[in-house]
Amino acid sequence: MQRIASVSAHVLIIDRPVGSPDLKLLMARLAYRDHRNRTWSFPGGFVDENESVEKALTREVCEEIGVELKRWKQVDIIPAHEKQRLHIGFLYVSEEWKGEPEVLSHELLEIGWFDQHAFFEAADHNQLAYPFMKDQVRHIGWDLPEQQGEVVPKHRAGR
């Protein structure tokens, strides 16, 4: 049976230091061999056949960056067309996770923690995999680029 749409699940993984209003967002730099090469994206991936969206989310995040999501909340559904085919993306937010994020997949070049300023700086320099990601961070309260900061790469592939 041919699928009528591809489905993916991605997550905004947040680190908020205790007692601080500031937060950091975990991003992954893609190693794809297309227009997304070397751009930043949220961790996640495609849903396999006969797999639930949330199962795919937890599997992809664990396989790609070694993080076990403890709790997550769905915040968006993004319909799109990719290569003349319908695509449906589910977006989640998680502040409760376990593990030390690291690059475990050949699909990633590195991971990094972004503050609000660094995220919008990347967006302004066309370094996000998809333009609509700039709007998706409203789910974590980022509406305007007001903070100062920098991208801090955490791990690189092939270390």
Describe this structure in words.
- Strands 1, 2, 3, 4, 5, 6, 7 and 8 form an eight-stranded mixed β-sheet that branches.
- The protein has one domain (5-154): Nucleoside Triphosphate Pyrophosphohydrolase.
- By secondary structure, the protein is α+β, with helices and mostly antiparallel strands.
- It is globular.
- The longest helix has 13 residues, at 53-65.
- It has helices at 53-65, 116-124, 133-136; strands spanning 5-15, 24-30, 40-41, 44-46, 68-82, 85-98, 108-114, 152-156.
- The protein is built from three helices and eight strands.
Name the features:
159 residues; alpha+beta; Nucleoside Triphosphate Pyrophosphohydrolase; 8-stranded mixed β-sheet; 3 helices; 8 strands; 16% helix; globular
Instruction: Provide the CATH architecture.
Output: Alpha-Beta Complex
From the helix content, strand content and strand pairing, which structural class follows?
alpha+beta
Anisotropy-based shape: globular
Question: Over the alpha carbons, how many angstroms does the gyration radius reach?
Answer: 15 Å
- CATH topology title: Nucleoside Triphosphate Pyrophosphohydrolase
Largest sheet: 8 strands, mixed
**What portion of the residues fall into strands of 2 or more residues?**
35-45%
Average predicted confidence as pLDDT: 88
- The CATH superfamily label reads Nucleoside Triphosphate Pyrophosphohydrolase
CATH classification, class level:
Alpha Beta
Distance between the termini: 41 Å
